[in-house]
Amino acid sequence: MTNSRYIESGQTFSWLTALESGSSTSNIKFLCRCGREVVRQARIVKGSRPDVFQTCGCKGRLMPKRGDRFSRLTLLEDVSKTSRRVRFLCDCGDEKEIVANQVITGKVKSCGCLVRKHEKSWSPAWRVWVGMRNRCSASSGPSYRNYSSRGIAVCDEWEDFEVFYRDMGDPPPGQQLDRMDNSLGYFKENCRWIPRVDNMNNKRTNRYMTCFGETKSMADWARDPRCLVGYGTLNSRTQNGWTDDGAITTPPYGGKR
């Protein structure tokens, strides 16, 4: 199992190869495929899309050459600035013309065999796997703040759907993929299937409230029959400085929950 919070010397991320080891919060020296050395924060490199920070900045200026590999695809002809569709050889043995930029930026990783060969493609497990990888590769927005920028990444083994499915199987009905330690990434020992409600309660952004001598999440209190208001009102009241007891036990204006 690969430690999702640590980068080893020699580990490669698209065009960058680590020249030293370090934790996800370290500034590490990388060697770009173009020959230039750069220093990048490890978690930004590991958590970004291939076209964002996994290069020294040369990508787009330095054209890929015949023989370059991108995931499961090997380039069969040189790429120029006017190239659009070019020929690639997939690891499965098929040749296919694919839009070059989609391969270079990591949006396309195979000739299509990664989807075709899995009977489970577009099943619940496949959708969970795609969503997990998308969250950890976001370069902006809430997913970037909650995942990529914190160094939350998918372990190398789980970049292959077959390995993910072997480890986790199908999600039970009504359950979601949960990280037991929210400070760590996605790998077998840190993941499990749990009910959606329990998963929501495990979010690090949860607000916990105490009333009637009990402490539980705001979402749980909103479902509790002793709470006189719904989740939206409860959230609004806490943001406006209400005490936990007052927010939970004060009837709503108008008398409707």
Oligomer: single chain
Side by side, the strands of the main sheet go: 2-3-5-6
Proportion of helical residues = 25-40%
- Total individual domains: 4
Indicate the overall shape: elongated
Number of beta-strand segments: 14
Per DSSP, what share of the residues sits in E-state strands of 2 or more residues? 15-25%
**What would you call the structural class?**
alpha+beta
Q: Give the terminus-to-terminus CA distance.
A: 49 Å
How would you sum up the major sheet?
A: 4 strands, antiparallel
Which regions have little confidence, pLDDT < 50, spanning 5+ residues?
none
pLDDT averaged residue by residue: 81
Radius of gyration: 23 Å
Order of helices and strands: EEEEEEHEEEEHHHHHEEHEEHHH
Instruction: Supply the number of helical segments.
Output: 10
Description:
- The chain is an alpha+beta fold and 257 residues long.
- The chain has four domains: 42 residues, no CATH class; 47 residues, no CATH class; 82 residues, no CATH class; 42 residues, no CATH class.
- It is 27% helix and 21% strand.
- The protein is built from ten helices and 14 strands.
- Strands 2-3-5-6 form a four-stranded antiparallel beta sheet. Strands 7-8-9-10 form a four-stranded antiparallel beta sheet.
- Strand 2 and strand 3 form a beta hairpin.
